[in-house]
Input
Amino acid sequence: MPIHDQGYRRYQGTRAPEGRAWAVITSTGVRTLLRRRAFAALLLLSWIPFVVRAVQIYFSSNLPQGGGLAPTPKMFLDFLGQQDTFVFFIAVWAGSGLVANDRRANALQIYLSKPLTRAEYILGKLATLMVFLLMVTWVPALALLLVQILFAGNFAFLLDNLHLLPAITLATVVQALTVSSAMLALSSLSNSSRYVGVLYAGLMFFSQALYGVVFVVTRDTSWAWISLPGNLSQISALIFRLPPQYSTPWFVSALVIVAIIGGSAVVLNRRVQGVEVIV
Output
């Protein structure tokens, strides 16, 4: 049988610019999750509060007795608070296996043997989860702002509350980045996505429960910094220029969030390795 020359051949394809490999990981991860009907149904379900708020805005704009339903900056903050439940379930579903599944399949060696840096791998996985979290927070909140303008037929509310647009964007990005960083770090600690989901649920519920116990004993809401949801709530209220729910200083909550993101980065730097390192 003929033997063909397998010597060197110049690559004839196109070369992608360096530093964009993370986008391939993100787009692949997003498409994979969207193909799952149950997950797509969860995303649709997360928009029900948007429909309720849109009806509320419609009544306030078109019915004389609907003045009490008029939108305010607090309404947008409350809406984002309502979305926390969906943020939790989407984070567990979409994020728990992001690194854990690759570790179980020994895929990290394959990923990092390509012209792909560790930072690009982490960024691609992080962006995958952030896309879905922003789809249930940032996107519907901005859509509500657009609905208010359409139903009112003017820009009066937006002009009176120009800070809403950057506030919605900043608050949702901070939440998505914090949740995604924590979930990705936990995912890198195990080969089991189910175990990672349990760890994340424990982080959220235990920190909140611990604050609840301390509050019952001290009757002091300044201890809310020990709760991850409490810290996110404090920062969101600050961004929206509204009175906070707790008496914890905003800079303490900010430091806790920065510590969580920084600590997650350290964990990911140690755990995402092409070769398993035993220490």
About this structure: The chain has a mean pLDDT of 89. The chain has one domain: 21-271. The CA atoms of residues 73 and 164 lie 7 Å apart.
